[in-house]
Amino acid sequence: QLQLEESGGGLVQAGGSLRLSCAASGRSFSRSISTYGMGWFRQAPGKERELVAAISGGGGSTSYSDSVKGRFTISRDNAKNTVYLQMNSPKPEDTAVYYCAGQDLPIVRTTASVYKYWGQGTQVTVSS
Fold first, then answer.
1. R_g of the chain computed on alpha carbons
2. Hey, how many other C-beta atoms are within 10 angstroms of the C-beta on 94?
3. Residue 86: pLDDT above 70?
């Protein structure tokens, strides 16, 4: 069982930067976090949840939505059981609740339905 907790959300000005963190833990956390593919998703009011970025278990492969490509970077430190989302030059349209998610294969997957483990989410608000 993988438990995820996001942190780092808040209010940021457009053009600034923000880094989200996702700490992984679990009562019977015997599997290495490197065996899980991880992703960041977001959901804005009145909109469906959408993929922001995904990363493979070892961190060597990533995928981004077109809307954040070139501005956001997903990374992971498996020794610290932590996944990050570096948000550079955020825009007001990036305002949403951001969720960290994990799935059982160490590959990049972009569909929300395959992600089995979810954090509670952290609010990111970008002011213009």
1. 14
2. 22
3. yes
Inter-residue contact 87 to 17 (CB < 8 Å): yes
What is the torsional sign of CA 55, 61, 62, 63? negative
Distance CA 100, CA 126 (A): 19
The helix (H) or strand (E) run that includes residue 28 is none
Evaluate the CA torsion angle 62, 119, 2, 8 in order and state its sign: positive
Is the pLDDT at 33 greater than 90? The verdict is: no
Q: What is the spatial distance between Cα 118 and Cα 12, in angstroms, rounded to a whole number?
A: 24
Sheet of strand 3-7, all strands in order from the earlier edge strand to the far edge = 3-7, 17-25, 82-88, 72-77
Q: b/e map of 5-31 (b: 16 or more CB within 10 Å)?
A: ebebbeebeeeeebebbbebeeeeeee
Q: What is the pLDDT of residue 29?
A: 52
